[in-house]
Design a protein that fits this description.
There is one protein chain. This protein is of the alpha/beta class and about 300 residues long. The chain is built from 12 helices and 12 strands. A 5-stranded mixed beta sheet has the order 4-3-5-12-6, sandwiched between helices. It has a 3-stranded antiparallel beta sheet with strand order 10-7-11. Strands 1-2 form a two-stranded antiparallel sheet. Helix 2 crosses helix 3, helix 2 packs across helix 5 and helix 3 crosses helix 4. The chain is elongated, with a radius of gyration of 23 Å.
Length: about 300
């Protein structure tokens, strides 16, 4: 038995296993790995026999990881990534292809056009198709196979997100506006937004009366509500805009939890064009200095 366990695992089986874990469906996983559903089922059966453990369980129409499946998944991803890196070392072809990339519109207006423009200049044969959505929808889109890579601004609540940037969150109001002195305090936030949840949490903690005056899934709409003095908002440092006033913590508005920004990949999105884009985004956003935005919006 010990001798048998030293035989390397089959990467093709691991790829199918990770695809099932990503989308929760044998049918969708088979489509992603270009195999029949029966072929994928056989791969999983052989993988489970190889490890002597049940890796997946069915819950109605959804397939979930067992405890042993959870243990395997993160390690399987590391093996797939290492395999992609090895293939890149021995590949002498130009990088080309298309990438489906998702990003929250908090960063799409100011940062991403510049970052993606510079990427296009250095990688002219890689086509990046960009879609802007709230983080929750981006994560759901990963599960349904809509994206190869996403940046999301809810930190690493999903354990397979790669955290690459942390920045301050600030309460913001319009310069010269009256929203900040209004009772109850009018606030603006996203429909399903962890930042809004944190803002409400700290306001409740200090007993500050408030009302959710403006709700939208569009970051531009939230910023407009702040700039036109409809409400007080909350934004990460790098998303501050001219005309916004950063509110100091001595104005009865406690400090908010820092914003964590992560990148998430589909299980196939390692090596080659995917590493090229991910590395470019992390290098440019991860080292971003938000001091200019802060000075611009400071009191």
């Amino acid at each position: 038995m010990v001798i048998g366990m030293t035989t390397p695992l089959d990467l093709d089986q691991l790829q199918s296993f990770c695809a099932i874990a990503d989308c929760g469906s044998f049918t969708e996983a088979a489509r992603r790995v270009n195999k029949t559903q029966s072929a994928v089922s056989m791969q999983i059966k052989r993988l489970e026999e190889r490890l002597g453990r049940s890796l997946l369980s069915r819950d109605g129409r959804t397939v979930k990881l067992t405890e042993h499946g959870e243990l395997l998944y993160a390690r399987a991803r590391k093996m797939l990534r290492a395999n992609a890196e090895i293939m890149d070392i021995f590949s002498d072809g130009d990088l080309s292809g298309s990438i489906r990339f998702g990003v929250p519109d908090d960063y799409a207006v100011r940062l991403l056009p510049v970052i993606l423009s510079s990427f296009q200049r250095t990688h002219p044969k890689i086509v990046v198709d960009v879609r802007c959505q709230p983080s929750e929808e981006l994560i759901e889109g990963m599960k349904t196979g809509k994206y190869d890579l996403i940046v999301f601004t809810q930190g690493t609540s999903h354990q397979y997100g790669e955290l690459f940037r942390t920045e301050r969150m600030f309460w913001v109001a319009s310069h010269g506006g009256q929203a900040l002195s209004t009772e109850p305090l009018p606030i603006a936030g996203g429909l399903h937004c962890c930042w809004k949840d944190n803002a409400i949490e700290v306001l409740n903690r200090i007993g500050r009366d408030y009302r959710v005056a403006y709700t939208s899934s569009n970051a531009l709409a939230i910023s407009s509500a702040v700039l036109t003095d409809l409400a007080v908002g909350f934004l990460p440092e790098s998303a501050l805009q001219p005309g916004m006033r950063v509110i100091s913590e001595d104005k009865d508005l406690p400090r908010l939890r820092d914003a964590e920004i992560a990148i998430m990949r589909a299980s196939h999105a390692y090596g080659g064009i995917y590493d090229a884009l991910a590395s470019h985004i992390v290098a440019n956003m991860g080292n971003l200095d938000g001091s200019d935005s802060l000075k611009m919006a400071a009191e």
